[in-house]
Amino acid sequence: MHIWLIYDRDNIPRNQFFINRWHEAGREKGLEVSVVTREEIIFGIRDSRLSLSAASQPLLPACAVVRTNDPLLSRQLEGMGIPVFNNAAIARLCNDKRLTHQMVSGLFPMLDTVFLHPGETRCPLPYPVVVKAARSNGGRQVHLAQNENAFRQALASIAPDDALVQPLCDTLGRDVRVYMLGQEVVRTMMRVSESDFRSNLGLGASTRPFDPGQEALDLARHVAQTLDAGLIGVDFLFHQGRLLFNEIEDAVGTRMLYALGERDIVRDYLAFILNKLGK
């Protein structure tokens, strides 16, 4: 059995530990896991049928683990009968913060949020605000704007992507992630930054286990069940002494889990995938 692990080429070096874990977990199961770059994949329609090829791979895989934001590619693979983890519907919804907020609205408290097009020039909320690219992840393309000039600069840097703007929460550099594997709560972690309003590990934050309470865990389970998810992260902010929904991570990072040394999440994820495939 052959599995493709699909990445953007530029993201491979910083994810090499995770990739190595996939190779090792695959060998333990007698499976071949190949890293395939998004840039080498060519797909579209040929002879009126869906077509896809990768320069480094002579044969198509039994399934694909997609670690890049490309719902169209995921949908192409699925249309050709290749199971994708996470699936195309998850890739589309979780990689667009506007769609995730629409999905969770009414289910859990969240910050007021306004969706913006790149051409906007006036901020719809009082300053300070946080301006996020609609399709950003990992803390990238997330800007703090204290005034109109900073707001316009943020939108210019995000363009041509759409954006969303929110008030600045009152507890900076803190957030909580609930890791879900299928319907299982794998771990809940708090990320803490002493130097940035963002709390991403890639930006220097630290992490520790944290109990977010039953309401947050129930939301995470509901999201995972609704999406029929594989491995995802459901993230929360702190504001006015309570948790607020923030976002859902599709190709969720796992460094926090390995830092604890408690379990090998890649081995568990591979077992989950094989069970889904009936292997």
Largest sheet, described in full? 5 strands, antiparallel
Order of helices and strands: EHEEEEHEHHEEEHEEEEHEEHH
Mean pLDDT: 93
Q: How much helix is in the residues? A: 25-40%
The CATH architecture category of the largest domain equals 2-Layer Sandwich
Cα Rg: 19 Å
Count of strand segments: 15
Number of helices: 8
Query: What shape does the CA trace take?
Result: globular
Return the structural class.
Answer: alpha+beta
Which spans of ≥5 residues are poorly predicted at pLDDT below 50? none
- Strand order in space, largest sheet: 13-12-11-14-15
Head-to-tail CA distance between termini? 10 Å
Number of domains: 3
Q: Determine the CATH superfamily of the largest domain.
A: ATP-grasp fold, B domain
Q: Report the portion of residues in β strands.
A: 25-35%
At the first level of CATH, what is the class of the largest domain? Alpha Beta
CATH topology of the largest domain: D-amino Acid Aminotransferase, Chain A, domain 1
